[in-house]
Amino acid sequence: MSPIRLALVGLGKIARDQHLPAIAATEGIELVAVASRNATLDGVAHFATLADLLASGEAIDAVALCTPPQGRHELAALALKAGKHVLLEKPPGATVSELGPLIAAAQATGRTLFATWHSRFAPAVEPARAFLAARDIRSVAIEWKEDVRVWHPGQEWIWEPGGLGVFDPAINALSILTRILPRPVFLTGANLAFPTNRAAPVAAELDMADTAGVPIRAELDFLQTGPQTWDIRVETDAGDLTLSSGGAKLFHDGRPLIDERDAEYAGIYRHFVELIAGGASDVDVTPLALVADAFLLGRRSIVAPFEY
Amino acid sequence: MSPIRLALVGLGKIARDQHLPAIAATEGIELVAVASRNATLDGVAHFATLADLLASGEAIDAVALCTPPQGRHELAALALKAGKHVLLEKPPGATVSELGPLIAAAQATGRTLFATWHSRFAPAVEPARAFLAARDIRSVAIEWKEDVRVWHPGQEWIWEPGGLGVFDPAINALSILTRILPRPVFLTGANLAFPTNRAAPVAAELDMADTAGVPIRAELDFLQTGPQTWDIRVETDAGDLTLSSGGAKLFHDGRPLIDERDAEYAGIYRHFVELIAGGASDVDVTPLALVADAFLLGRRSIVAPFEY
């Protein structure tokens, strides 16, 4: 089978840091075009917008949308309408309700729609899921604390409505949580701290539960300096399981089980190629639905202004 | 078939104004118990809580939950676990994610779960749906403006997280909108005004679209004095269709088609009896998902404090 001809839409930090090397390393898919208003890539056809690309007649099979979430729905709808397979960076959109029509459009056109959650491809995730499937789970504690100035330097969109603020990284934790736990999770309460000058929260505390009543607590902070924390600790009848470094490491009662280099995006593109080959889609809205619920049910507080 | 023996949980304003007369007027269902901390009803068994009722051995087949939305999930889960059919007042819960497990529990126990949207039983709704199915729709304008002091006197829960503020009435408009339009609706933007001293919005503007790109605009206000407005105007290729008075009246280009007395709750209980007889459930989370999206994507502003 000839490789899938992919166009990348958006050529910002995540596209350069993660997508480009992952695409280059994946069998069965090749980058043939880029749509970006400001950036170009040597040796690859360039267009200012996805609409220009589609109008050009450039032969592509699929698009990967790496632009901010606020405009993702319009681009995805356009690409599906043009008969292209679509890969969505996380979060898959600015709202939950915009995803239903995209799922329907993918079904109607027989194209693949893949709403990626890159953290689910971290090496500790599937082993943790297997471990927890057979355990009595007592509690879960998530600590997701990073420095926005280091990881999202100058990114203004993240503070706009739909940009999610601290939930942009924390939705990764929720994507792991909802993958490794054996039962559905729902939100029971939240506190959200909004900077006076921003439309998205800079910190949050979430209380959740699963359907067996297991308490799940998450502490999220976007202003963590010094050591950065991306940990999920699960207390079970067979000891504590800890996923740390965003799922790169796994510990059982402090004993390391897994400590691997990050290969999340390679996993994403491998899965995208498989989905297209199988004529399937993969869209799980659960992590974004939990974030929407946190905004819905969360008690808001106003905190100090944030500037980069 | 002997009538369904129903217990009412919560005996506040909505239960007394609407549920009691509708139950009394509906064939096939009878009120046999009430669970309420403060209120009792002559001639009907009384319990302080649903848990007390279930523990008492009082013979009931179904419960109707008329308590505020914040505790609804726990009560519904308890009732389903005890093998009872469950009717949920709107909104069906404090979050969207809590409803999945309830749907699963109803399926697992073979019991009926009915998430009611009373405005969908207003007389103009089904005729409007039939009219619009065959029309080219140009735009939709919702105006939902009422005086919270008149319609929710002293209700503090409505201003708490999960109480929804102005979305408590406006979700009725969204429940009609998503019933009468032929295509799915999603949110594209929102502005939410929060009183300085309250956790829920007192006013909002919503921008939505359907999958054909029809623009849908909603203006919501909880401080409307004088005439109250609960109108949905749909501009079509065959003239303007207006549902007013919350769906009690229907106009085509200003000409009245329908003007009926409210019988929404009678419709609800008739449907509940049918669902139980057919072994079916009816849970549409769409209106609540749109509200969650409005909180997720909405730009917040802070306005004057609200006191009753």
Summarize the structure in words.
With 308 residues, chain A is α/β, with parallel strands linked by helices. Chain A is 31% helix and 29% strand. Chain A has nine helices and 15 strands. In chain A, the strands form two sheets. Chain A has a nine-stranded mixed β-sheet with strand order 14-13-12-11-7-10-9-8-15. A six-stranded parallel β-sheet of chain A has the order 3-2-1-4-5-6, sandwiched between helices. Chain A is globular and about 55 Å long. The mean pLDDT of chain A is 96. Chain A binds chain B through residues 73, 94-98, 100-101, 104-105, 161-162, 184-190, 194, 199, 211, 286, 289-293, 295-300, 302, and chain B through 73, 94-98, 100-101, 104-105, 161-162, 184-190, 194, 199, 211, 286, 289-293, 295-300, 302. Chains A, B: Residues 4-114 form the Gfo/Idh/MocA-like oxidoreductase N-terminal domain.
CATH class of the largest domain in chain A: Alpha Beta
- The quaternary state of the protein chains shown equals homodimer
Pairing-aware structural class of the strands and helices of chain A? alpha/beta
Low-confidence stretches of chain A: none
Helix content of chain A: 25-40%
Overall pLDDT of chain A, averaged?
A: 96
Q: Which strand order does the major sheet of chain A show?
A: 14-13-12-11-7-10-9-8-15
CATH-defined fold name of the largest domain in chain A: Dihydrodipicolinate Reductase, domain 2
Can you tell me the CATH superfamily of the largest domain in chain A? Answer: Dihydrodipicolinate Reductase, domain 2
Largest interface: A-B, 35 and 35 residues
Shape of chain A: globular
DSSP strand count of chain A: 15
Count of DSSP H/I helices of chain A:
9
Q: What is the number of independent domains of chain A?
A: 2
Percentage of residues in strands of chain A: 25-35%
CATH architecture of the largest domain in chain A: 2-Layer Sandwich
Distance between the termini of chain A: 47 Å
Estimated radius of gyration of chain A: 19 Å
Give the biggest sheet of chain A: 9 strands, mixed
What is the H/E order of chain A?
A: EHEEHEHEHEHEHHEEEEEEEHHE
InterPro entries (chains A, B): Gfo/Idh/MocA-like_OxRdtase_N, Gfo/Idh/MocA_oxidrdct_glycsds, NAD(P)-bd_dom_sf
Domain Gfo/Idh/MocA-like oxidoreductase N-terminal (chains A, B): 4-114
Protein name (chains A, B): Gfo/Idh/MocA family oxidoreductase
